[in-house]
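Hi Y.,

Following your request, here is the sequence exactly as I used it, all 234 residues.
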Amino acid sequence: MTPRRGTPLGRASARLFPEDPERHGELPALLLLLTFVTGLVDAASFLGLDHVFVANMTGNVVFLGFALAGDTQLSATASLLALGAFVAGAWAGGRIAPRVARREPLFALLVAAHAVLVAAALLTGLADDVRHVLIVLLALGMGLQNAVVHRLAVADLTTTVLTRTLTGLAADRPGPATLRRTASVLAMFTGALTGALLQLRHGTPAALAPALALLCAVALAAALAAARSARGTG
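Below is the corresponding structure, written out as tokens. Let me know if you'd prefer a different format.
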């Protein structure tokens, strides 16, 4: 994305990559917001939808094994639905990506599609006995999110997986990556904490509403950045 050091997003992104502050423009800050969204959505899904994750697929593979072994608190059906929908979303994102030449419009497009799926899940969540539909919609959105993040390949900001981030924090000497790794962990934690509080006290729609608002804000910010980039190269 076109560097915007003068904007709050641009300044935050520059601090995350002090070794090369102009490389990613506003994208790092937007990826941190998506990491927060992941915490929100996984809190809603795990606490409200048959103890399944819609973003953390490592957890679902393990949960599937536990469920098949006979753990009655876990649902093999829910885990399989989440895994299948996530893969389908990632596959769709992977097919769309080569058709969009520049990464700014691609990011805006797939985050907007994710927002639409969360909006559908939010509306569906107002009905009864629709857990499996919610799992599919949310996991599809997370698959799309992971497809675009994989395509962008911004170091240490995967938005959904923290295992390698925590490993890097522990194993590597402090350096430029330390801040963004720490920020990524904190974003996921605060998103999960916020989502859990909302889910436990007010239900799934309350947990999904801020996720939808943030996705819309990220998509809009990315679209504006894409427009600025197009003007700058036009």
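The chain has nine helices and no strands.

Thanks again,
Q.
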